[in-house]
Description:
The complex is a heterodimer.
Chain A: H1 3-6, H2 10-15, H3 20-32, H4 34-51, H5 62-71, H6 80-83, H7 90-100, H8 103-112, E1 128-130, H9 135-143, E2 147-149, H10 157-167, H11 171-176, H12 184-187, H13 191-200, H14 202-210, H15 214-231, H16 234-242, H17 249-257, H18 263-266, H19 269-275
Helix pairs in contact in A: 3-4, 13-14, 13-15, 13-16, 16-17
Chain B: H1 14-22, H2 33-40, H3 44-66, H4 69-86, H5 96-115, H6 120-130, H7 145-161, H8 164-175, H9 180-187, H10 191-208, H11 210-216
Helix pairs in contact in B: 2-3, 3-4, 3-5, 4-5, 5-9, 6-7, 8-10, 9-10
Amino acid sequence: MNCARVRPHLGDHMEGDLELRLRGQVDEHLRQCASCATELGELRSTVALLRSLSAPEPPAELASEVMRRIRAGEARPRRSQAVVRYVFDPRVVAALAAGLAGFAILTSIETRWVPASGTRAVQPSEIVIAQQAPTGIRQAAASNGATVRSIQPRLTAIERAAANRFYRPDPRSMVADVYGHVDPDLQQLDLDGQLEHAKADPNGFLRQVNEVSESERRAWIAPLVVRAGLRGDAQVVARRLRDTSHPLADALAAEFDRMSPNPMLSDPIENRMNAVGNPMAVPVSY
Amino acid sequence: MTAASCGTLDATNSTTARTAATSGDYLEVDPDGDLVTRWKAGDESAFESLIRRHEGRVFSLLLRMLGNREDAEDVAQETFISLHRHGQRFRHDARFSTFIYRVAANAALNRRRALGRKNARLRKLETRQAAGDDLPTSPRNPESAMYGAQVQVQVQDALLELPPDLRAATVLYDIEGLSYREIAAVLEIPEGTVKSRIHRARSALRESLKGLVSNENKGEQP
């Protein structure tokens, strides 16, 4: 056996998982090849280091704090978290605006379902869910007393396409929702903030992107690219990324470059929809 | 408390635990079965007992996945609250401990995505400072306690450099002592993928920890 055939088996060799004949062949190679023997030794040392990590003591109050939060009602299902992301109806916006002083507070209600100080909670019956929302969200909303109806009759085809992309749920939230739980942090992803970060510190941004897996990267970047397209600065982001020498720069920049400066997309869609008084203009964030 | 002793795998170390879990009988008796039944019947004290039984392993997993105690504690609390909220979905088709690991691992992966690891480097620096400031690029006196603490930080840093899916696999296998089959159930991926991720993780860690492992490995024989 040569090195290329032996190396994939070193992990199983270390675990004693190789069948006898193959183990004999690997051992024979290891006796003759210092390089593979060294690699096996280093792998063993690596695993020994991992296994030497001391087991941390959990916080002394962990169980009691969890039970306190459960008794305070935090373990009740919070489907409304996801529901509120589909609030598009102008009547709801008016009701919210009256008590909640703007979108910033709306965002906090999205994730907490708790009114900010001096405001009131939004009742499910006040919510109108877009017919276009995913089935699960619509059903959850309807079971909470919300109304479901189509709310974008005046959008042109291209605006609908752009709006649907813009408001499509963050795929990461869908992943998090496997257990019916939406991590509040996921809903507070600041797309604009991330884009500004990408422009101001492209190296730092690329380092962050490089630290997640391929599939996570796709899920992360897709809404950013769409958002940059809607903002009209996708090409600026692409240029800033290309200015770096990071190995991911070109691939990521190409994603942003795909958002060509189509006037229908680069013209901020919120403005276009505001101009026709369309409720889809409510800037619901991720 | 060791990682193995605080969990439900009836073994005193991770290797023995892995052997027991791969012997084909680990679904026969779930050590948590009675507590789960009592909890589902409305006994909240049984749920608290479940937390106390698993908090060590959950916290250890989360600390290795996230790299700092503050995040690990936050996510550990969210994990148990989420379990309480959705525990009725547990179907007894795997051990309850597997279900807990699944929720915890998903919560850790989601937390890392949400943060985008924006503070990871800063936190690493804090961890280094807490462990005695600058890390050695080559081993100093291997007998010293300070050296041991620095090695631990270096290994934890190397773990944090791994992509999260590789990190989860190697933490569950090499640190928490789960079997390939259990990890496949926790991460909901095929066993072959588990093995492949562990292999890739170890190779990457070997590169990251070159200074440590090449010194420890002098004179190694097959």
